[in-house]
Amino acid sequence: MSSQFAGSCLCGNVRFRVDGSFDRFYLCHCAHCRKDTGSSHAANLFAFTATLTWLSGEASITTFRLPGTRHARSFCAVCGSALPFATAEMVTVPAGSLDTEIDIAPSGNLFIASRASWDHELHTAPNYDAYPT
């Protein structure tokens, strides 16, 4: 049985579908992922046998490859949203780009030794349902 997942960018220009299942879900704290997300980590799903199909906006997709590394990032040139990246070996999908719910929990945290100095006790920060006033 194959699963199907839908996703899009923030502006809705780029839409995609992933057919198959996700094998791993990692939160990566490396300096490259922190830099390209602007956050404490990237949350990426990895699929080794799934297929990625662009449904719209493919001309708006830009891919940046960091020279001298395996690091790459695809994004919408209109709104900057992170988008999937496919190679011959796997499909990498930023978890936040999916519009479909997933039933896989993060498999682990990567490159913890590289995490930001402020990313140590995030679970102790207060939680709000909306922007606090």
Helix tally equals 1
Pick out the low-confidence regions. none
Total strands: the figure is 11
Mind describing the biggest β-sheet? Answer: 5 strands, mixed
Count of all domains: 1
Give the overall shape, derived from the CA principal axes: globular
Reading off the top of the CATH hierarchy, the class is best stated as: Mainly Beta
Strand content: 35-45%
Q: Can you tell me the CATH topology? A: Metal Binding Protein, Guanine Nucleotide Exchange Factor, Chain A
Give the proportion of residues in helices: under 10%
The sequence of SSEs as H and E is EEEHEEEEEEEE
- Average pLDDT number: 93
Condensed summary:
This protein has one helix spanning 31-37; strands at 4-8, 15-19, 24-28, 42-47, 51-56, 61-65, 72-76, 82-83, 85-86, 91-94, 108-110. It has 133 residues and is mainly beta.
